[in-house]
Design goal:
Layout lengths: L1 H24 L2 H9 L9 E20 L2 E20 L4 E19 L4 E5 L2 E19 L2 E18 L3 E5 L7 E3 L6 E3 L1 E5 L1 E16 L3 E19 L7 E2 L3 E5 L3 E20 L2 E26 L16 E27 L1
Keywords: Signal
Protein name: Porin
Length: 344
Amino acid sequence: MRRLGFGLMVSVAALGCASQALAADLDYPEMRGSYNSWDESMSPDMEFEAGVRYWYSMGSQDVGLFGYSFNASDTSHIAEGYLRLNDLATNSYLKAYGGYSALISGDYTNTATPSSGAIIDGRVAYAVVDFGYQPLVWEEGETRTGFGGIVGYQYWNDSPDMGRANYAAIDSASDVSWSSTTGEAVYGGDSSENDISINALRLGVSGDADFGAFSISGEVAAIPYAMISGTTAATLFPTVDAGSYVSVQSGPTTFEGVGYGAAGELMVGTKMDNWNFRVGGRAWYLNGRGEARYEVATITDATDTDTDSVYETDGSVTLQDYVSDIDAFSMWRYGILAEISVDF
């Protein structure tokens, strides 16, 4: 009995020590405090900004081909959409915007036609996507300043109406018929408008500063390489009527080349709640070189083999491609920007 009583006392004492240790591990007030900390607010890792812009822009375009010149100067009113995604954890961002001219006016000179007149139509269209990274960031109170680099892509179509280039619509002999009474060739015609597109690489630097009451941001980008393609409002080959045959340009003048240039933008703004109001300016420039390609059809007259004044034997059609170097090519576009955007 004494051994049983002693063992029982030792067991009770051990359970008491264990209960104290367990109570120390399960500290209920601390558990409640840890659970409540989950409700504390956390800073977001991502920010989104979307908005619209208006670009009052002025542009010019100069093309030199075969000694002819094509010059245009215009004023365009452009509506633009804007989107930006900021990754606060890595100090990087993705920015995209695109625009299209709502109204365009100006004047042009085309020495190949020759002609000159007012620009009342045409288009300016573009899309830009940039990825930016800012390794240099300073933050103090409400002030944040960042500086870094950007790499991006730019599509730019700058095509003010510089008149239309007329040419013969001839792709093969089936597009030509001959008069049985005169032997002359009969064919249809078509025309092309100025339509130049740019696909460009952008490399540059960007910086921004937010002081709470107002902000300022800017970027400067080089365009080290750009592909240029499209058609020009030019008929380069004058129609030649040699009596027994005629030579005529039988398609549009296409343009293929490469270029380089630069782009810059500066914006200053203020903020109201999560709304941003900014104004600033933007400028783009491109210089290029390349080749103009066009086709010439040489068409012989029909013949009267039996001298009965009926031209019963059709003539022939020969198509020849020609390539000419672009003497000069440059484009400018610059103007004032106004923006309204919202953060979310």
